[in-house]
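ok trying this again, last paste got cut off
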Amino acid sequence: MMIEFTLDGRSGVSPYLQVVQQVRQALRLGLLTKGDQLPTVKDVVSRLAINPNTVLKAYRELERDGLIAARPGIGTFVTRTLTDDSFAAHAPLRKDLDRWLTKARRAGLDDESIEALFMSTFRSAQEGVA
């Protein structure tokens, strides 16, 4: 699979960190696996209209963390994933979340409202666990 990066200018998160987070999320969800190739710096730059140094910084951080490796003249490849024993639980949880999203949309919530509700509930649950 080839990941396609997107940038959210309203997120307050730097573009390089958004790239890092998207790779980590894809590794955690099993969307990228060992041996998969990342887009070239040139491809990311042309698609997102960002500075090559931004992409290089993100790739260097991921390489430093041992998640990817550059092979000169060939490309940049995933060297390990972040999936764990909980990965088997993803499918049923995703199904529950899909049902919840359908209910939220039927209740008239737009994407921003759904995200706000999820994040506030997520934070409250974290505080309750801590």
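PB: full thing came through this time. The beta strands are 37-38, 68-71, 75-78.
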